[in-house]
Specification:
The chain is of the alpha/beta class and about 210 residues long. It is about 30% helix and about 25% strand. It folds into 2 domains: about 100 residues, FAD/NAD(P)-binding domain; about 90 residues, no CATH class. The chain contains 6 helices and 11 strands. The structure holds flavin-adenine dinucleotide.
């Protein structure tokens, strides 16, 4: 019996696990720091309050429950010992014959890590709900502000990075201000909303 350990239950890890699902002579252990698979492409909809977190998160256990040779463990992998074929989480050690790393990617602030406290990235539910909180509370402040110039300040949003996430987010804030704002907030003129998308490359969506 060969033991395969997969770290990460994102698209890559899940597909790798399914590939070996119910295969003879193979046991798979999928380990993820969280117990749900996150559908990242719709995170911006959570950030803009169009979807709730539960709509883009599904338990990894249920996704893989019909594969008898796959077990799912929650744990954050801290260490990999290549010589001994052991990985260590905060709770446990696992041995393996083959290891698949599917840990995903992290956002980059291009050397400006200190920006993170002012502008969270958009890779996790926590970050999406934090963006949602900040945007909605800015709308609320604009609603009670009588000074039009100050109102404008609360309704100005700057997004740094004109890749797919930045462009999607800019579009979603635009839609939100035109539809939600116009309907639910009585004191705000949606036309005051400004969305500034900053991109250092020659155009937006450079990577596509
Ligand atoms: C806002 C946004 C919009 C996007 N839109 C699109 C789109 O429209 N089309 C498209 O094709 N792609 C899109 N993408 C990209 C796509 O979502 C990613 O390429 C994809 O999710 C990457 O999958 P992955 O399995 O490599 O990593 P992830 O989905 O990031 O999964 C990695 C997993 O590993 C786990 N993990 C990480 N480190 C550890 C550790 N040390 N121990 C245990 N577990 C760990 C994490 O908890 C996570 O569950 C978008 C991404 C974002 C953020």
């Amino acid at each position: 019996m060969k033991k395969i350990v997969i770290i990460g239950g994102g698209f890559a890890g899940l597909n790798a696990a399914k590939f070996f699902g119910n295969a003879e002579g193979i046991r798979v252990t999928l380990i993820d720091g969280r117990n749900y698979h996150l559908f990242q492409p719709l995170l911006y909809q959570v950030a803009m309050a169009a979807l709730s977190p539960a709509e883009i998160a599904s338990p990894i256990r249920s996704i893989l429950s019909h594969y008898s040779n796959i077990e799912v463990k929650q744990g954050y992998v801290r260490e990999i010992d290549k010589a001994k074929n052991i990985i260590t989480t905060e709770m446990h050690e696992y041995t393996f014959d083959y290891l698949i790393l599917a840990c995903g990617a992290q956002h980059s602030y291009f050397g400006n890590k200190k920006w993170e406290q002012h502008a969270p990235g958009l890779k996790t539910i926590e970050q999406a709900t934090e963006i949602r909180r900040r945007v909605l509370s800015s709308f609320e402040k604009a609603e009670i502000e009588k000074d039009r110039n100050k109102q404008k300040k609360y309704l100005t949003f700057v997004i740094v990075g004109g890749g797919p996430t930045g462009v999607e987010l800019a579009g979603a804030i635009g839609e939100m201000s035109r539809f939600t704002l116009a309907k639910d907030f009585r004191e705000i003129d949606p036309k005051l909303t400004r969305i500034i998308l900053v991109e250092r490359g020659p155009r937006t969506l450079c990577s596509l």
